[in-house]
UniProtKB/TrEMBL annotation:
PANTHER family: DDE TNP4 DOMAIN-CONTAINING PROTEIN (PTHR22930:SF292), PTHR22930. It is found in: Nucleus. The keyword Lipoprotein does not apply. The lineage of its organism: Eukaryota, Metazoa, Ecdysozoa, Arthropoda, Hexapoda. InterPro entries: HARBI1-like, HARBI1_dom. Its main location: nucleus. This is DDE Tnp4 domain-containing protein.
Length: 227
């Protein structure tokens, strides 16, 4: 097993959906920060620029005239990813990526993962759903209250953009992936996201409890030093 495959195998240890207690605590923190109740994460899609593929290149071509794949991610208020979905071709719209993601199927099929009183927040590209809040459409007819809501939502949602900036700043290879095997690209991105969470969670032992935390950290440290 190479180091890429070994890190990817640790996905469930470091990227996981918050449980009921964690979602309640997360929603309370976000409410304290922004006064938007019942929010348990921010969602967004971003483009990972790649070398032009040998085949099917037109479907990777995005609106910025670059070849890319899309990384959909959800994060909490500490910039920790709680879900990621990688590999949809760059020409696809964020809303379609979401509807085709395992997360959409899980959240709409299992209310226990996100009950009706909890929501994600996204930008205007996303559909308005019971599980997803988005801004009011910008127009000259918004009320002051609607305008204020948009401002607060945008401020809270910016955490997902900061998380991606942190990810790319730490793992600069993600700014342009020149990988010979296109099938390996999602694994490279996934490994970077796992390491991103690993680094952030090192300072948050209370999320796991001492024994569980040490077990997960030791797994990663043994893996790193092995290679």
């Amino acid at each position: 097993m190479n180091i890429l495959s070994a890190i990817v195998a640790l996905r469930d240890d470091f990227i996981r959906w918050p449980n009921e207690r964690e979602r309640t605590e997360l929603a309370q923190r976000i409410d304290n920060q922004s006064r938007i109740p019942c929010v348990v994460g921010a969602i967004d899609g971003c483009h990972i620029i790649i070398k032009q593929p040998v085949s099917n290149a037109v479907n990777f071509y995005n609106l910025n005239n670059q070849h890319s794949i899309i990384l959909q991610r959800v994060c909490d208020d500490h910039k920790i990813f709680t879900d990621i979905f990688i590999g949809i071709l760059g020409r696809v719209h964020d809303a379609r990526v979401f509807r085709n993601s395992p997360l959409f199927e899980q959240l709409t099929g299992n209310p226990a993962l996100l009950p009706p009183n909890q929501h994600l927040i996204g930008d205007a590209a996303y559909p308005l759903l019971t599980i997803l809040m988005k801004p009011f459409r910008n127009s000259d007819h918004l009320t002051p209250r609607q305008t204020r809501f948009n401002q607060v939502l945008s401020g809270q949602r910016s955490v997902i953009e900061r998380a991606f900036g942190l990810l790319k700043g730490k793992w600069r290879r993600l700014k342009y992936l020149d990988v010979a095997l296109a099938a390996k690209i999602p694994e490279v991105v996934l490994a970077a996201c796992i390491l991103h969470n690993f680094l952030l969670r090192r300072v948050k032992k209370h999320e796991y409890g001492e024994d569980a935390y040490n077990s997960k950290i030791m797994k990663m440290m043994k893996l790193i030093y092995k290679f």
